[in-house]
């Protein structure tokens, strides 16, 4: 079962043309100053750029290879929106909005939605037996 999160602070993506590449694609990378640990700035052969989780890469001297298919699409979200998470990676969630748009959202802009267990009321007969 997927986890759900509520957006508690709006987030606007700064990247309109996100990097998208298949497993096995060679990328150039650089370590840039960022508040997010575990991410490398990468450039695809197409010229697209974006942040990629370091754990998804095999690093060589100045280049790297994607271990799996990847898209760096970040979602622009508003307070109150619901995000269904597929997985978490390095303080980000990859998931879907209620309209089906998929992408990354920073975890610090989200709060988990607590699923309450259904409450069952005992019948009068069961209560009388107690």
Q: How many runs of DSSP E, i.e. beta strands? A: 12
Tell me the domain tally: 2
Instruction: Give the assembly state of these chains.
Output: single chain
Secondary-structure element string: EEEEEEEEEEEEH
Task: Please compute the radius of gyration using only Cα atoms.
Answer: 20 Å
Structural class: mainly beta
Please describe the biggest sheet, giving its number of strands, its sense, and whether it closes into a barrel: 5 strands, antiparallel
* CATH topology title of the largest domain: SH3 type barrels
Distance between the termini: 36 Å
Report the CATH superfamily of the largest domain: SH3 Domains
* Total helical segments: 1
Which ranges are low-confidence, i.e. pLDDT below 50, for 5 or more consecutive residues? Answer: none
User: Which CATH first-tier class of the largest domain would you pick?
Assistant: Mainly Beta
Mean of residue pLDDT?
A: 91
- Assign an overall shape: elongated
Characteristic key phrases:
5% helix, 5-stranded antiparallel sheet, SH3 type barrels, elongated, 2 domains
Could you characterize the architecture of this molecule?
With 130 residues, this protein is mainly beta. It has two domains: 55 residues, SH3 type barrels; 54 residues, Roll (SH3 type barrels), CATH 2.30.30. Helices cover 5% and strands 41% of the residues. The chain has a five-stranded antiparallel β-sheet with strand order 11-10-9-1-12, with no helix packed on it. Strands 5-4-3-7-6 form a five-stranded antiparallel β-sheet, with no helix packed on it. The chain is elongated. The chain starts with a strand and ends with a helix. The model has no long low-confidence stretch (mean pLDDT 91).
């Amino acid at each position: 079962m997927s986890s759900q999160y509520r957006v508690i602070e709006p987030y606007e993506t700064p990247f309109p043309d996100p990097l998208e590449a298949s497993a096995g694609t060679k990328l150039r990378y650089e370590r840039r100053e960022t508040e997010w640990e575990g991410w490398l700035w990468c450039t695809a052969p197409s010229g697209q750029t974006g942040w990629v989780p370091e754990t998804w890469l095999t690093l060589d001297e100045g280049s790297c290879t994607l271990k799996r298919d990847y898209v760096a699409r970040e979602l622009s979200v508003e307070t109150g929106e619901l995000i269904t998470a597929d997985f978490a990676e390095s303080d980000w969630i990859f998931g879907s909005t209620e309209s089906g748009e998929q992408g990354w959202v920073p975890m610090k802009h989200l709060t988990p939605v607590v699923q309450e267990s259904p409450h069952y009321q005992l019948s009068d007969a069961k209560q009388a037996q107690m």
